[in-house]
């Protein structure tokens, strides 16, 4: 007997989107615990479960955000360049196609939804700064990994991140994963007492979506299946050999 189909998995996958404006309504500690409790069932290589997450809210979140805002004012050059991350490179530099175009498209759509004209650097910087308030979500999550771990564990953390985002949907909550926090890894580390042996990989905003906010009405486009998937059900003819 095969197992029964899970009823809501596809709906949660299709409905998840990055939310960048939230209602002020708080999220109970119990709900956050339920989300993380579900996410710990994420698979990982040889069940290593390498993820760590710090849940930040209330005065601690305010302090973290204020500290980063202060450093943003003092060190505007930190956000120059393609790489969002500080301790690791998220993107190739220079970014190649088709990735560059996809990145630009979602950026332009987002700025347009916020009424920001192309080339308005001050407004773009202010908009980017909303990352460092967790987009006003009541809860911020910071994800870390031990520095000694390899790429495999980063795959595992990615699966864990998506598991948190999908579990959040189950409770009517929304999220935005945020590589942006990695740029201020030193500040995050200090404020949240993260040991030097851990890399600050990314953050995540968590809360109840404000669906009246125009920024939440954009949907990032996806490439069609045939651009990334290939089906092989016959032996491939290789150059110089004949396939019987
Ligand atoms: C690991 C990771 C880091 C991200 N970092 C940021 C970020 O710093 N700021 C932001 O606004 N969105 C961030 N995003 C959201 C992406 O821009 C978003 O997932 C993508 O455009 C697809 O849109 P969707 O999530 O709405 O489907 C991040 C996503 C991932 C998976």
Question: What is the fold-level CATH name, i.e. the topology?
Answer: NADH Oxidase
Biggest sheet, spatial arrangement of strands: 1-2-4-3
Which superfamily, in CATH terms, is the homologous superfamily? NADH Oxidase
Strand content: 5-15%
Structural features:
244 residues, alpha+beta, four-stranded antiparallel β-sheet, 36% helix, globular, FMN, flavoprotein, Nitroreductase-like
Describe the structure.
The chain has 7 helices and 4 strands, in the order H-H-E-H-H-H-E-H-E-H-E. It is an alpha+beta fold and 244 residues long. It has one domain (18-220): NADH Oxidase. Strands 1-2-4-3 form a 4-stranded antiparallel sheet, sandwiched between helices. Helix 1 crosses helix 6. The longest helix has 20 residues, at 151-170. The two termini are 38 Å apart. The structure holds flavin mononucleotide. Residues 17-18, 20, 84, 106, 131, 176-180, 202, 220 line the site of flavin mononucleotide.
Structure summary:
Its cofactor is FMN. The chain has 244 residues and is of the alpha+beta class. Helix content is 36%, strand content 11%.
Mind sketching the topology for me?
Blueprint: H1 9-15, H2 29-39, E1 52-56, H3 58-74, H4 99-113, H5 121-129, E2 139-146, H6 151-170, E3 174-178, H7 185-192, E4 198-207
Antiparallel strand pairs: 1-2, 2-4, 3-4
Helix pairs in contact: 1-6, 2-6, 3-7
The structure holds flavin mononucleotide (FMN).
């Amino acid at each position: 007997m095969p197992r029964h189909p899970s009823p809501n998995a596809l709906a949660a996958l299709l409905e998840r989107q990055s939310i960048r404006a939230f209602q002020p309504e708080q999220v109970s500690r119990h709900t956050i615990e339920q989300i993380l409790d579900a996410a710990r069932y994420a698979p990982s290589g040889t069940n290593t479960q390498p993820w760590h997450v710090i849940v930040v809210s209330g005065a601690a979140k305010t302090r973290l955000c204020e500290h980063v805002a202060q450093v943003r004012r003092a060190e505007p050059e930190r956000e120059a360049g393609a790489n969002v991350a500080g301790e690791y490179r998220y993107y190739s530099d220079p970014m190649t196609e088709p990735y560059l175009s996809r990145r630009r498209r979602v950026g332009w759509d987002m700025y347009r939804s916020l009424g920001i004209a192309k080339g308005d650097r001050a407004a773009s910087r202010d908009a980017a700064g909303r990352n460092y308030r967790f987009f006003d979500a009541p809860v911020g999550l910071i994800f870390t990994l031990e520095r000694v771990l390899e790429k495999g564990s980063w795959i595992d953390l990615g699966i864990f991140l998506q598991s948190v985002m999908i579990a959040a949907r189950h409770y009517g909550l929304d999220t935005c994963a945020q590589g942006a926090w990695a740029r201020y890894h030193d500040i995050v580390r200090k404020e949240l007492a993260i040991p030097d042996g851990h890399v600050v990989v990314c953050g995540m905003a968590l809360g109840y979506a404000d669906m009246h906010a125009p920024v939440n009405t954009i949907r990032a486009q996806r490439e069609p299946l045939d651009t990334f998937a290939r089906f092989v059900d016959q032996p491939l003819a290789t150059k110089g050999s004949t396939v019987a």
